[in-house]
Amino acid sequence: MMPAYNPKRILIEVVMMTDFAINRQQVTREICQICEDVGRTASDVQLLAVSKKQLPAAIRALHAAGQVAFGENYLQEALSKQAELADLSLEWHFIGQIQRNKTRDIACHFDWVHGVDRVLIAERLSAQRGEGSGLSPLNLCLQVNIDQEVSKGGCLPAEVPELVAAISRLPYVALRGLMVIPEAGHKDAFVRTHALFESARSVHADPQQWDTLSMGMSGDFAEAIAAGATIVRIGTALFGARI
Question: Which of 18, 42, 70, 219 could anchor a disulfide with 35, C-beta 3.0 to 4.6 Å?
Fold first, then answer.
């Protein structure tokens, strides 16, 4: 049965699509300008829309504006959205903390995982990704607690070489780089992360795969891009305040 015609809902969706198109255009324009200012190529920086706590309709509207990659923090919320948006060709990134009992669903339903901070988690993701028929390798970023904050997850900077060496040798996953969430105001952390990224290249099993720095959010992505970010995780500047 066809859904009932609802002009109010259609008007809301049209307004939503227009707003998100404007927001995305503004963010991409800023990314291009920042890249020009620091001598980088804008195509080397991927815009990841952080869609946690946003409705599927908002994701659909932003996708209509040209956005493909979306980041989710909460597994059950993400799986529900994926089911509702299965008709769209989207790239799903898991950017939240990873619990051991959630790795199977993460391994099977995401294209990228940004929060790996232990070999055990990477091993579970690798084994469970390998159980899926025909799935491409799962892209991973190693989360680093770059400012060593007690309240945040991630490995310590000193642990990075050992973890990169071990995780990059696992099958069914591709360790692509580092992810950080610096302490507020510590924008020099992006420069330190870039240095850590470069120093770890030599211990990666396949240095050609080592190409990703996931860092920078709505309030600091300019500094992150200047320091070498290749993925910026933007929520508020695209969607507005979360519901």
Answer: 42
C-alpha distances in angstroms, 22 versus 46, 52, 61? 18, 20, 11
Question: Rounded to an integer, what is the distance from CA 122 to the centroid of its chain?
Answer: 17
| 64 has pLDDT over 50 | yes
CATH architecture, domain defined by 7-239 = Alpha-Beta Barrel (3.20)
pLDDT > 60? residue 13? no
Distance CA 45, CA 47 (A): 7
Residue type, 54: Q
Measure Cα distances from 169 to 35, 64, 98, 172, 214 in Å.
Answer: 33, 38, 20, 10, 21
Q: Which residue reads 């919320």 in tokens? A: 77
Confidence at residue 16, expressed as pLDDT on a 0 to 100 scale: 56
Q: Residue 142: in which H helix or E strand, if any?
A: strand 138-144
- Residue position matching structure tokens 């089911």: 83
Angle at CA 113, nearest 5°, toward 112 and 115? Answer: 155
Whole-angstrom CA distances from 175 to 89, 167, 208 are 23, 7, 11
- Tokens 């579970």 appear where? 124
Residues with Cβ within 8 Å of residue 124, at least 6 apart in sequence: 100, 103, 104, 107
Q: What is the DSSP string of 19-78?
A: HHHHHHHHHHHHHHHHHHHHT--GGGSEEEEE-TT--HHHHHHHHHTT--EEEES-HHHH
145 has pLDDT over 50:
yes
